[in-house]
């Protein structure tokens, strides 16, 4: 994918509670897992940068997965049970029986959490953003899918697109084995993309709301972000507060300031962190909590990634 995909190709079937951290589902460099499961999980690359997965898992204890997702499109059908995660603070919940799409235009941190006793049976596709763009260049019918990557994160249910859900169910209940199974997975995976592209292309765009000047909109958004650096509003919350759509707000901010709101927030947090560290009045953990990090280790990693050295060397 555009950056390392935390999900590895693997297959397991647990008859008794077993550690997910040891199951080989995730690349340990990009994900941390706490919890155990009973049941099966399967992930298989059907084409380079196109991965199919399914699972039927029970979680006897609390599940928590911290990971960095690359710029990509994920198409999921929860067949039974539940799933949810937070990405950059926004809660996304998957409803059983309805296909959902998650589009990320850039790498983002995600945290999946489920309560003990939870159950999830689902099937889905993970598509690298780069691969999706290559497909769109080859086939104009797939170009509408690029709108799902958007600017930042897009998450939506598709109750009006049952064809995608049926195809994912067929993938889950594949009756074949060996080479025939691989061909079946590849053909149906591509069919999912075609059906989804047709669905997106057929949407009727809502009438545009009256627009305020991009300069005013972007500067007002920046002011609100600066006022709440430790607990910033999500883009959706900010857009609602300013009375515009998410896409309108993202585009205005990027055009005026040359970066996304997420990039701006990270920059401001890291620059403020450096200033506070240089004052020598607070410990690293205190500064981390002040800037909204629940885990000082996450703050240290973010600081090192931005400044090139750990906070203790500031």
From TrEMBL:
Coiled coil: none annotated. SUPFAM superfamilies: Homeodomain-like. The lineage of its organism: Bacteria, Pseudomonadati, Pseudomonadota, Gammaproteobacteria, Pseudomonadales. The keyword DNA-binding applies. Pfam families: HTH_18 (PF12833). GO terms for molecular function: DNA-binding transcription factor activity; sequence-specific DNA binding. InterPro entries: Homeodomain-like_sf, HTH_AraC, HTH_AraC-typ_CS, PchR_regulatory_protein. It comes from the Bacteria. The keyword Transcription applies. This is AraC family transcriptional regulator. Keywords: DNA-binding, Transcription, Transcription regulation. Residues 219-314 form the HTH araC/xylS-type domain. One of its GO terms (biological process) is positive regulation of metabolic process.
């Amino acid at each position: 994918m555009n950056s390392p995909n935390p999900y590895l190709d693997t297959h397991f079937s647990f008859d008794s509670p077993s550690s997910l951290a040891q199951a080989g589902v995730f690349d340990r460099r990009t994900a941390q897992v706490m919890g155990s499961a009973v049941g099966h999980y399967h992930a298989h690359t059907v084409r380079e940068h196109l991965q199919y997965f399914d699972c039927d898992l029970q979680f006897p204890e609390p599940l928590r997965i911290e990971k960095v997702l690359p710029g990509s499109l994920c198409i999921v059908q929860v067949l039974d049970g539940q799933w949810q995660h937070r990405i950059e603070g926004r809660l996304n919940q998957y409803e059983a029986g309805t296909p959902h799409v998650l589009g990320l235009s850039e790498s983002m941190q995600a945290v999946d959490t489920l309560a003990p006793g939870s159950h999830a049976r689902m099937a889905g596709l993970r598509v690298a953003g780069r691969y999706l763009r290559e497909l769109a260049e080859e086939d104009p019918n797939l170009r509408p899918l690029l709108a799902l990557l958007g600017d930042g994160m897009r998450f939506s249910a598709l109750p009006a697109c049952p064809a995608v859900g049926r195809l994912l169910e067929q993938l889950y209940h594949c009756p074949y084995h060996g080479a025939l199974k691989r061909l079946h997975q590849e053909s149906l995976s591509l069919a999912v993309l075609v059906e989804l592209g047709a669905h997106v292309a057929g949407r009727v765009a809502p009438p545009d709301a009256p627009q305020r000047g991009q300069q005013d909109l972007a500067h007002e958004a920046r002011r609100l972000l600066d006022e709440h650096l430790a607990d910033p509003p999500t883009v959706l919350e900010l857009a609602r507060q300013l009375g515009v759509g998410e896409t309108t707000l993202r585009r205005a901010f990027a055009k005026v300031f040359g970066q996304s709101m997420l990039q701006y927030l990270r920059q401001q947090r890291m620059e403020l962190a450096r200033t506070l560290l240089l004052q020598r009045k607070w410990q690293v953990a205190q500064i981390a909590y002040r800037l909204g990090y629940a885990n000082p280790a996450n703050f240290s990693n973010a600081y090192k990634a931005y400044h090139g050295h750990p906070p203790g060397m500031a």
